[in-house]
Amino acid sequence: MELSYLFFLSSGLFLGWSLGANDAANIFGTAVGSKMVRFRTIALIAAIFVVLGAVFSGSGTSETLENLGAVNALAGAFMVALSAALSVYFILRMGITVSTSQAIVGAIIGWNFYAGKQTNYETLAQIFATWTLCPLLSGIVAVILYFTFKKLIKCCGMHLLRLDQLTRCGLIVSAAIGAYALGANNIANVVGVFVSSNPFKSLQLGSFYTLSAIQVLFFMGAIAVAVGIMTYSKKVISRLGNNLMRMSPVLALIVVLSQAIVLLLFSSVILHDWLAQNHLPTLPLVPVSSTQAVIGAIIGIGLAKGGRNIDWRTIGKIITGWVTAPILAMIICFVSLFFLANVFNQTVYLP
User: Fold this and answer.
1) Strand partners, 211
2) What's the predicted TM-score (pTM) here?
3) pLDDT < 70 positions in the chain
């Protein structure tokens, strides 16, 4: 493999690191914030499962981003990923958790503008719709789980210590599921723009399984996500741990589980095909924001409890980050592509 490809891929790996640093708060921030699980323990579990999700279930959402804008030059893919990563990093530095999914969409649109390519507005409208549907669906799931758990706890009459033990186990399992869902749904954000220029070859794992070339690429991106989780996510976790709303361990479990369910719904090829075959409405296979899913779940539970304990100011800051990320990524990408093409003489798009 050429060293030049590894250099260009580095921006995707940086974006993966940024995603891990940012979105770990969505996977297990509530668990750590509620003091039920140690950061190191659950971060290691999340790092392992995010790799598994990316490698074995990550192909479903890549096609959607390719339809939005098929980045057809390696140097262009490098700048698209770098622009998204920089926008996420700058907003993270302000202590605001942000949507990587929205940042990569903004960067791709910036590349489309610079390259004179037509943005697929049907796909863009589909993606915009999920930005509303994702938190709404997560809020509905959270409310259903909230009243279900409340009724079960009341009917069982469980001792408080026993409830805490089960909740701790539930948080760990839910974080593993959430990390798997994050890898499956969001790996397209990390390295999806590099798929068309992927130089990796398939990799034989003993006599049991063969990783395809795309899975090897996804593995590289997922390792970067895992490193982001382990090295920087602790600085962001407190933002979603208890700042948005004071949460008991059971409520933290509901938030994590709701987020995991929603991400799996938007990334499961099996579910999508089954619904289509049975002539039922399908959810698009789109990289959605785990941040939006968590915020939707927290707001849903907060409204179910009367809405008095929600920190609307913090939520307002996070929503500002959602709006800023794609715009900032688009501007950075457009300007940077100009310098990359005219100063460094790189081919950033093919006619």
Assistant:
1) 203
2) 0.87
3) 1-2, 95, 236-245
